Amino acid sequence: STDGPTGYNSPMEAFNSGQKEKLAYVVCISAKWKTNNKPDFVATIDLDPSSSTYSKIIHKLEMPNLGDELHHWGWNACSSCKDCSARRRYMIVPGLNSDRVYVIDVASNPRSPKIHK
């Protein structure tokens, strides 16, 4: 979540006390990028059971380059830092097969993230 506090004492505390996620961000690699000329992308998936788009990909953010193989992404704010002022505003997404690191803004429009830099 980008709007709640970060940090809980345990996974069980987060499960019992935390907000349920309404969106998921999933990195999707283009395994055959050399032949299909398609870049990797970050999919935004609707997790809200009351939504008409529940369980569907509602947005695809294509990367500007081919062959990155997006991998092991994280947040700009650590989930265990217990700092109420820290917000998960940016995803930090490195490419396993490239020297590129993308910073993706998920706070400005969580349903339609964009590359910050």
From TrEMBL:
Q: Which Gene Ontology molecular-function terms are recorded?
A: selenium binding
- Keywords, A to Z? Selenium
Among the Pfam families in the record, one is SBP56
Q: Which family does it belong to?
A: Belongs to the selenium-binding protein family.
**What is the protein name for this chain?**
Selenium-binding protein 3
Q: Which organism is it from?
A: Nephila pilipes (Giant wood spider)
Gene name, please? SBP3
